[in-house]
Design goal:
Blueprint lengths: L5 H29 L5 E10 L5 E12 L3 E3 L1 H11 L2 H23 L4 E5 L2 H5 L3 H12 L6 E6 H6 L1 H13 L3 E7 L6 H4 L6 E4 L1 H9 L4 H13 L3 E4 L5 H9 L4 E2 L10 H10 L5
Parallel strand pairs: 2-4, 4-5, 5-6, 6-7, 7-8, 8-9
Antiparallel strand pairs: 1-2, 1-9, 2-3
The protein binds ligand C2E and magnesium ion (3 copies).
One magnesium ion binds next to strand 6.
């Protein structure tokens, strides 16, 4: 690509790289202080039961309010946090903050809420991850079955033996374990039987692929049935239309998240969302 445009093309390419490299350096430098400067907040995306259409919980999604750049996407800074090792401290903060805020939201709303927290590959290798999770539960008083950890397939299969041992230990705390972004590659269901999992989260791209072709309904239905036979519950991510929602309900999918149902919300917007829902008995 650099050569295609001749000399000018090459210059353009080089300039682009410099901007990218500079942005990356700025992010990396400011990421080191972001925790101490309290620039992170958690947003919460509601997760809906497709049988009852009631909220069952939410996923914690980190947001970084950079003093100069504004809001930086986790897609941009989580990889940097991983490479630099900063993810260990940031991840620990996310765990505790998510458990504390969920406990408060439950007390305030009188509803049980299941909180999902994303763990990245590097956090799985962190020696005291089990202690971090136990500590977050102890300090927040959140019942263990209401905490779910989301791990990606790629992180799990990096070191299968280690993952299997670690997940068993985490499971021993009484929490729930989910595979995130399922369908974006790798293993398939058989592979995942080696881990004590509770939930499969179908990636948006996987769901959309099925949605576009009517004849694929049988495929996703069979997939959901197979997951159920393995005692896994199935959550669809990224539901943006009522058609997709209907499709998933017909396929017996258990739960869903997506802009059509609710966007990720700030804590105060999430509270407002909860207070607008019909009261529970
Ligand atoms: P993820 O865990 O798969 O989270 C789902 C992403 O899809 C979120 O992006 C969410 O805002 C977005 N989303 C939700 N509904 C829809 C929809 O209907 N349509 C579309 N197009 N997108 C939807 P977000 O918040 O930008 O997070 C991106 C990724 O960053 C997450 O993917 C997760 O891998 C990572 N991440 C976010 N928060 C954390 C965290 O606290 N710790 C770690 N380690 N990773 C995190
Ligand atoms: Mg997730
Ligand atoms: Mg996901
Ligand atoms: Mg995803």
């Amino acid at each position: 690509r650099a050569k295609a445009g001749g000399r000018n093309g090459y210059c353009f390419f080089a300039a682009e790289m410099t901007v990218e490299a500079r942005t990356r350096m700025t992010l990396e430098l400011s990421l080191r202080h972001a925790l101490a400067r309290e620039e992170f907040v958690l947003h919460y995306q509601p997760r809906i039961d497709l049988g009852t259409m009631a909220i069952v919980g939410m996923e914690a999604l980190i947001r970084w309010n950079h003093p100069e750049l504004g809001q930086v996407s986790p897609m941009q800074f989580i990889p940097i946090a991983e490479e630099t090792g900063l993810i260990e401290a940031i991840g620990q903060w996310v765990l505790l903050e998510a458990c504390m805020q969920t406990r408060r939201l439950m007390d305030w709303s009188g509803r049980p809420l299941c909180i999902s927290v994303n763990l990245s590959a590097r956090q799985l290798k962190c020696r005291d991850i089990v202690d971090q999770v136990r500590d977050a539960l102890d300090r927040s008083g959140l019942p263990a079955p209401l905490l779910e950890l989301e791990l990606t397939e790629s992180a799990l299969i990096e070191d299968i033996e280690h993952s299997a041992r670690l997940l068993k230990e985490l499971k021993g705390l009484g929490i729930r374990l989910a595979v995130d972004d399922f369908g974006t590659g790798y293993s398939g269901l058989a592979y995942l039987r080696r881990f004590p999992l509770d939930v499969l989260k179908l990636d948006r791209s996987f769901v959309l692929q099925q949605d576009e072709n009517d004849h694929n309904f049988d495929f996703i239905k069979a997939f959901v049935d197979m997951a159920h036979a393995l005692k896994l519950s199935v959550v669809a991510e990224g539901v943006e239309t009522s058609d997709t929602l209907q499709f998933l309900r017909n396929a017996d999918c258990d739960e869903a998240q997506g802009y059509f149902l609710a966007k990720p919300l700030s804590l105060s917007d999430f509270e407002a969302y909860l207070s607008r829902l019909p009261r529970i008995a």
